[in-house]
């Protein structure tokens, strides 16, 4: 899908790129940090465009340059010297240029000082945001989500020292504890990818049928099972009930996917709740992601007695602007107006 969305007028000050595995989004900002125009292309790092002759580009770098030119080449030509900042998998080992991981905890300033630069053969310099590495017995990484988190924090009205628990549901859900524009700790759950794999590649999917609308009752049933007296049996036991409830007629084919979703998200939120120290006050919770998925996570949080979440949007664009400002790639005309439409 290709899209161009004009949002406002004004002189361009920054090009921001959210460059992931499956898609590429570009934002053109004015000097107040407002997004003037947004574009989206299918040129994720695993799906780069081919050359004009229909063949693969001679080098990987040439393929990345082709994708870059397609999404924002005209912006660069119209605004020579405009800074470019990119986040996401474009900085992975499979990306345009590998941007090293910084170790967490890490602040906005750490990220701004750790940018990696790749030069386009036609002249533009693309600055790439580093990912984060959390060391430990079970190391954890993020790449792209750090920019979302900073965008969420920039929009928060909480005091600077107040902890914020930011949930980024999706293929690999992230839960990030942040404070003072700093990422302190994070956890990753492969909930979305596991759901897709179970639905598409196991026997559970054989009895599932398409539903016209989300089945919130089936989803709530899955949440309830995940926190029931049988919760100690664990997720691997619970997911098989998707099939047996169908075989016994207790769960229709159209309800089974939502039930499975409830099981998986329920176990994810249960694990998150278990990290809460007994008697400790709950952190403010913010969810940022696809609206219906965030709605489901809000239902799961309520089921486990966690605070009702605030919903955030436009976080990546806002985070790119925050990093560009901290890195002195741009000088806002009004820092209080440094926002993204």
Structure description:
- The chain has 341 residues and is an alpha/beta fold.
- Helix content is 33%, strand content 22%.
- The chain has helices at 60-78, 108-113, 145-155, 191-201, 216-226, 235-238, 241-247, 256-274, 291-303, 315-326; strands spanning 3-6, 12-19, 24-30, 35-41, 84-87, 102-103, 106-107, 116-119, 125-128, 132-134, 140-142, 164-168, 173-179, 182-189, 284-288, 310-312.
- A seven-stranded mixed β-sheet has the order 1-4-3-2-5-9-8, with helices on both faces.
- Strand 8 and strand 9 (125-128) form a beta hairpin.
- Helix 3 crosses helix 10 (315-326), helix 5 packs across helix 8 and helix 5 packs across helix 9.
- The model is unreliable at 1-9 and 335-341 (pLDDT under 50).
Keywords summarizing the entry:
single chain, 341 residues, alpha/beta, seven-stranded mixed sheet, six-stranded mixed sheet, 16 strands, 33% helix, globular, disordered N terminus
